[in-house]
Write a structure and sequence with these properties.
With about 200 residues, the protein is mostly helical. It has a single domain (about 1-200), classed as hpI Integrase, Chain A. It is about 45% helix and about 5% strand. It is built from eight helices and five strands; from the N terminus they run βαααβββααβααα. Strands 2-3-4 form a three-stranded antiparallel sheet, with no helix packed on it. Strands 1-5 form a two-stranded antiparallel sheet. The protein is globular and about 40 Å long.
């Protein structure tokens, strides 16, 4: 089935769980000390939830709920919805290690901001700021992501959206009991057909 799908809609770059762990570790050997835990929290949250980068930068501290163990996403910050209908608000349960990391980060971050992730010069990081941070960490980690054509890429191929694709890989290959419907719900696709088109080739059978 995979070979008959339009390659333009298929996930082209993704990482394994071990490679994401390498990214998280590399946060502490690159960049300013006061940004290191922030950068790990960005990667951990994106890899847990599948947030698009435009959604991540819009997240405020008060969208964290239940002791930082859940993330509430109002309609207005959800991006790239593929039709004229507005997405419903969503509440995403967070992994326990991500909740602990966010709590530690919020207790010690250098800047008090309503935005969850500020930058050096602003109260809210930009999408380009997230891309730059992930690019630097990926280079430091030396990860070689997996590519659509079956080869391995370079660290420069690692982007925020590659982390979103990596959520699907993790759910379908490294965790037990998940279905494509679970991936659809986590990534908030409009339909299961979208999930199948984008991710069928990274599912081990």
């Amino acid at each position: 089935m995979a070979q008959n799908l339009d390659s333009k809609v298929r996930a082209k770059v993704w990482l394994t769980p071990d490679q994401v762990d390498d990214l998280r570790s590399a946060c502490y050997s690159t960049g300013a000390d006061y940004l290191q835990q922030r950068n790990e929290a960005i990667i951990a949250l994106m890899y847990d939830t599948g947030l698009r980068v435009g959604e991540l930068v819009a997240v405020d501290v008060d969208m964290l709920r239940e002791g930082n163990s859940a993330l509430y996403l109002p309609t207005e910050i959800q991006k790239d919805y593929p039709n004229d209908n507005e997405p419903a608000p969503a509440t995403l349960e967070l992994a326990s290690d991500v909740a602990r990391l966010l709590s530690s980060y919020l207790n010690s971050r250098w800047k008090d901001s309503s935005a969850l992730f500020p930058s050096r010069s602003s109260d809210r990081i930009t999408t380009q700021g997230v891309r730059d941070a992930i690019s630097k960490v990926a280079e430091e980690a030396g990860v070689e992501p997996y590519l659509l054509n079956g080869t391995r890429g370079e660290s420069g191929d690692v982007t925020p959206h590659a982390l979103r694709h990596s959520v699907a890989y993790r759910m379908m290959n490294a965790e037990e009991g998940n279905t494509l419907y679970d991936v659809r719900n986590r990534l908030r696709h409009r339909s299961i057909q979208t999930t199948e088109q984008v991710y069928d080739h990274i599912i081990r059978v």
